[in-house]
Structures are given as C-alpha cells and as structure tokens.
C-alpha cells in the first residue's frame, strides 16, 4: 500500500456543526491516523456551500450566501480543530479552482452526449437537494428523511444519462463485494438501481441562484450533487485536460466515508459521473449509521441538537480524546449509534480511566515503589525468554493484526473492543500474578518481570489506541519512553530498555475520571 486517500462527506453550511457531523469526522480521522501508522495518508474534508438551502437560510438571516458560508465554514473548521480532526485539506465548494473545474467537468459531459436539456416537472426536497419519486414519499406525501413536503418544480433542466451507466454500476457492485461497506447495504443500492432514471443536473436560475453557472448557458446553475461530489477530485487538483501529479498519485480514493442517507449519491451518481469521465472508481464507500440523542432523532424541532464542542465544555475536558473514543465506539460498523451523557461518563470512566489509565499508573507506581523506577536486566531477559508472560505478549502482538484487519473492513468499534480486551487480559494477568505479593515475598525478579511484561503490553496498547485518543496515547508513550510514531509493522515486544524508566514525579494519570457532578450539571443544562 503506497498511499491511502480518504474523504468525508462535505457538510452543508446552512447551520453549525452538530454531533452527527462530528461522528463522521472523528471516524474518518481515526481511520486516517490508523493508516498513518501503516502508510502515507491524505485526508480530505470540507464544506458544501451551494444550493437552495443555503440561499434561503442566508436570506432569512439577512446575509449574502457567501457571508453565511464564510461564517459557518469557520465553525466547522473550529470544531474539527477542537476535536483533533487532523485533515490534510479542507475544501470549500465556493473555492475558485473547484468552481472552474466543475464547469469544465459539466462541459465535458455535455460534449460527450451524456448531458442533455429537457423540460421537467418533479417534486424537489431542499433538505436532500434532489428530486424525489412519488413512491419514495411517506403516506402523507412527505420526504422520509426530512419529513417536509417537497415542492412541485416545473423547469427546463439539464439531465445526465444515468440510465446509460446502470448496467456497468450493477456489474461493478456485484464483482466488488467490498465496494459498498457494510455489505448489507449493497442490496439496497442494487434495488434502487433497478428503477433508476436519468437525473436533473442543473436548476433554472429563476429558482436557484446560488450555484455554479453552466458555461455557455447563464440561465442555469449546476445542480448541487454534481458540484459536491466533484470535490473529491477537484481538491486534489484534477483537471479535465491536465490532471495534476497529486491527482495521479492519490486517485482513486481508498474510501469515501459518508452517512447512510447519502449512499445513493455516492454509490450510483458518483460512479456514473466517473465512468462518464473515464476515471477509475473509488475503492470503497463506507456508509456509517446515524447518531441519535438519548435514542431520539436529532432535530431542531425537538431541540436536542448537540454541538460537539459543548460536550467538551460541559464535561470540562482538556482533550477531546474521551469524546472521540465514545463516539467511535458507539455503534458496530454501519449501524446507528446513540449519545447520552450518562452512557458517555460510564463508558469512558470504565475503559479509559479504570481499565487502561489505571493499569499503567499502578504498574509504573509499583516499579517506582519496589525498584526506584529502574528496569533491571534480569526482568527483561526473563520477560522475553522463559516464561509466564510469553503467551500474553504474543496475544498483544496478535491483537495488532486483528486491529489492522478490523480497520481494513472499517470496523472501528470492533477494533477498539479488541484493544480493550488486551487491556482487560493484562489487568487479569496483574491480578493473577499479584506483583505486590511477589514483592512481599521478596521474589524480586519475578515481580520485576511481571511489571515489565505489563509495560511492554502498554507500549503496544498506546500505539493501538493512538488513532482514537492521540493525546492520551502520547502521554502513555512519554511515561513509557516509547516512540509513539512507531509503525504498526515495526511493533515488537521489547521496547522497554534496561535502566531508569521513570521518576515518581513523572507518573501522572493519563486520563482523569469524568466527574459525575459535571455530568449531572450538563444534563440539567
Ligand atoms: N452536503 C451533503 C454531502 C455531500 S458529499 C459530496 C450532505 N451534507 S450534510 O451536512 O447534510 O451531512 C454531512 C454528513 O453528515 C453526511 O454524511 C451525513 O450522513 C452526516 N450526518 C448528518 N447527520 C447525522 C447524524 N445524526 N448522525 C451521523 N451522521 C450524520 O449530506
């Protein structure tokens, strides 16, 4: 694997970021950080800034669309910074290079005969920014996702010949069972493809002004999805005539991480546009589930929309690690997850403070108490040759492969469970071998050997937990004198060196329990 190029959906900027947007960016950042332990990574995110929704919101707020976009794009960037979402590029679809390239892409598709003009009448949902079929609506005639009545629109639009690519896409999905992740969503897509029609790819300016102009037809703007989806190639400097070196290096993307609600656009429309442009298809489309709040759908009308940074503030968290860990482990691959303050507190206290943090803390404390923080040669030799711990160390190294395999399948929660199971196993090892009893009995070598075994495993754990909790992992590694930038392939089980490992005053809890009083306070807010 020479590179790993991954992207998130680009968020609409008609509002501020919420915990659902954050879920996706955190998942993607975790995948990016994991792959950075294996290869060179390029991580793209950004904002989707055109369309009727943004035009209307700007008008309501007495702003120009561009002013609204600038204000809200910054809120997304600030939120990702606070959550340590460490992307390589943030694309905004109002960026000039993007706009110009989208116009060229559109023109190329017209020249190819894949886009034609056609008078049309249809039901438009501004929430989805697309036309809906009658049969997709609820019994009351509402959009099933946005629970709003779509608007009847009569326009002359440009249409893209999606039907031309139907068979090729069905074939691609069937021949590449891991193209759509999780696999259970592939059937949904195949069903949608069965009765697919050509799609409108422009809107009349009389109805939608805020978009990219169609070249040579100033009465039309390019419909948001062809604009939005193209970000994945314009961001890496694709050009219809002269693709850049960066594009050639990075495309096709290894994965587009998106929510299940926009899978159709990514697994049908986007592949069709790419096939029409004679470009290769992305390797995977990973559709994650949705986050609910206290088991309810998040919505402005219910007043339960949570901003991601408010969680950090309410719990007075210095680092976003606990929130990242909680979100990333809230659901198995592709399923819906839930956020609740109580559950957050309980889970991060149990996993990060009690099991993982405490294990490191008490092991280092015993090393200081019994051996003045010093690792003696016989602890290491025995630890790596004879003995009790060998199978445990083997299991910990085995977990690296298991975690990698989970990441290959975008099983982020499942990978975290594997890491925590190594921690649990190690806690049990400490209980079973009771180093405090060994010390009392003055069995110093055995005692030191147990402690070093645990510390070796904690080096591996710090590397594995790093994508989820980068700050905690760095602090763990610091106390272990372990290089946190070690690639997963280079992980070994003799990182702990002979000599003074740590002074008493340098032992610090890597994660402080989330206070229950704070949690109660945040619930009352
Ligand atoms: N702009 C389009 C995407 C274009 S990608 C070329 C869009 N924007 S969005 O702001 O509505 O959603 C952005 C992402 O956030 C989507 O992947 C969507 O699924 C995700 N989520 C929005 N609400 C969510 C939850 N409540 N839970 C999890 N993810 C959610 O769609």
Structural description of this entry:
The structure is a single chain. With about 525 residues, the protein is an alpha/beta fold. About 50% of the residues lie in helices and about 15% in strands. The chain contains 20 helices and 18 strands. It has helices at about 20-35, 50-60, 65-80, 95-110, 165-175, 185-195, 225-230, 230-235, 245-250, 265-275, 310-315, 320-330, 340-370, 375-385, 390-410, 410-435, 435-440, 445-465, 470-480, 515-525, and strands at about 5-10, 10, 40-50, 90, 115-125, 130, 150-160, 180, 200, 200-205, 210-215, 215-220, 255-260, 285-290, 290-295, 335-340, 375, 500. The strands form 5 sheets. Strands 1, 2, 3, 4, 8, 13 and 14 form a 7-stranded parallel beta sheet that branches. β13 (about 255-260), α10 (about 265-275) and β14 (about 285-290) form a beta-alpha-beta unit. α13 runs antiparallel to α18. It is elongated. The mean pLDDT is about 95. The structure holds 5'-O-[(L-methionyl)-sulphamoyl]adenosine. 5'-O-[(L-methionyl)-sulphamoyl]adenosine binds next to β2, α1, α7 and β13. 5'-O-[(L-methionyl)-sulphamoyl]adenosine (MSP) binds near residues 20 and 228.
